[in-house]
Amino acid sequence: MYNLTQPIVVGVIVFALSQYFLKLILEPIIQFRKLLSEISHTLLYHQQELLSNNAEDLKLYKEIAGLSAKLRSSVYMIPFYNFLVKLRIFGLPKRDNILLSCRKLNILSYPLLEGVEELREKSQKNEKILKDLSKLLPIETTFMINEESNP
């Protein structure tokens, strides 16, 4: 009978390495991508309220602030984040873009202060923030067609 010790040891090592990759790298990246999708969904779903400043419910503002905090903390769940960004395999944005995106999401999450800004100025500022977020993170944030991409 052949010596099966070496193939069994190699098999166990390969299994352990694949589980490490799956649990500690791939699953956090999948959760991160789901969070990006959730941010995109929230901004698209509530675009009318954000641009028209009709959001009277503080729930929306709290939801956006919560998504901002989740986005910032989710980066720390992915080991070797900077290395994975350089590989460009998983479509991860740079850490600086995430920090800037979190700041912009926080600005969107501030409820309107009546009398401080005119509604039009606030609407234009929110529209610019939504466009900036779309550039910083690989997500859709508005239903508007990008004029630069159309001939």
Topology diagram in text:
Blueprint: H1 5-45, H2 47-52, H3 58-74, H4 81-87, H5 95-109, H6 119-136
> Main sheet, how many strands, which sense, barrel?
none
Strand content: under 5%
Order of helices and strands: HHHHHH
Continuous helix count: 6
The span between the termini is 71 Å
- Tally of domains: 1
- From the alpha carbons, calculate the radius of gyration and give it in angstroms: 21 Å
Low-confidence stretches: 146-151
- Number of DSSP-assigned strands: 0
Overall pLDDT level: 84
CA-based shape = elongated
Give the helix proportion (percent range): 55-70%
Structural class: mainly alpha
Question: Quick summary of this structure?
Answer:
The protein is mainly alpha-helical and 151 residues long.
Describe the structure.
- It is a single chain.
- The termini are far apart.
- The protein has 151 residues and is mainly α.
- The chain is built from six helices and no strands.
- Mean pLDDT is 84; it is low at 146-151.
- It has one domain (5-136).
- 69% of the residues lie in helices and 0% in strands.
What attributes does this structure have?
151 residues; mainly alpha; 6 helices; elongated; disordered C terminus
